[in-house]
Amino acid sequence: MKGRRRLSAEETTSSKYRGADGRWHARVTMGTRLDGQPDRKHISRSAKGELDRAVRALERSRDTGQYTWTESDPALGQWLEHWLENVLPSTVRWKTLSTYRSQMRVHIVPALGSIRLSSLRPETLEQHYRRMLDAGSSASLVHAVHRVLRSGLNEAVRRQRLASNPAMIARPPRVPFTEVEPLTRSECQAILQAARIGRNGARWSVALSLGLRQGEALGITWADIDFAKSTLQIRRAVQRRTWEHGCIVEGTRAPTCGHKRGAECPGRRNGGIQLVETKTRASRRTIALPAPLVDELRTHRVRQAEERLVAGELWHADPDLVFPDDFGRAMDPARDWREWKALLKEAGVRDARLHDARHTAATLLLIQGVDLRTVMAIMGWTEMGTAQRYSHAVDELRVEAARRRGESLWPAQTSDATSVRG
What PANTHER family does UniProt report for this protein, alphabetically (predicted)? Predict the structure, then answer.
């Protein structure tokens, strides 16, 4: 077993002295603060022997990793900033980090940022959740804020900045259960009929039949499709990233260009529409394609080749996307969403979210009797609990399963019952 890191002399130095008040004092170096400076704990006793024992106890708790900072602990805002900027970037994807940063700066720091970690209580967090609800925030948003706090404070406990995590005890508001409302079969057919005459019409056949996430569908390249085997590999996704300031001097956080938004900075960087790897291992998957969809994709490839000839040198051949914009570049998700809304109106179908196409595909798979594990693999789900949102489809499967059991065990009675109903 690998031993603990040997502490340097600066990290273990303790000083003792007798103060003007007649008491014995000591300052014990317990580690380093978030700003890199030594974190020295002050203790005082009336007798030197008592002080010596207290110093040894502190040094022992430090050396064995059992000490928790309780005096010079940082404020919540300071800790979350340190966590988001120095700990998380190497462990989570950009989109997750961006969401956490937004929630912290908008919903946490203004209200709770000045509170010291050691002063945080479950009731403090619950009162904040109630204030958010009273101000009009949804229960889902409050839950998201709660997850950020829970994760950030878990790290504080792991690094011994906090004895226990109050967010593990605090109770966020209950999120109302919303059952999925998929598009009907007739609505799907009307959408596909209207899509045939438009550009990238196969985009919507892929959405409704395979249930890909928006970014996944826009990230498909022709190399991902095996027409001989009728399969599609999901490996990448299109993602819009917020532009960062390129003018910030190292060691500072304030931009020097005079603009508030990174998109307006002359030296902006790391933003725009990008092609990234899929989020999880389950998201990287191979899907079997229905024969009609394979034929439609072949037709779409011929039409796209004609577009490339018209665009000429303006066409971006790399990375050879299946559903690009007019010049072969990655499609802006906002434009893709607008085209979906326009298609619904053209097809005479009720307004629906683009994500409802994914719900529709999952529902159709379940109703058709595809087993849940296979549905999870096709959809890229990582948790069995996700299927609970499709209770209407699962209920139909239960009824069908009961009917089949009846036919298997009581064939005569089932046949008679069918005759009576007829």
Answer: INTA PROTEIN, PHAGE INTEGRASE-RELATED
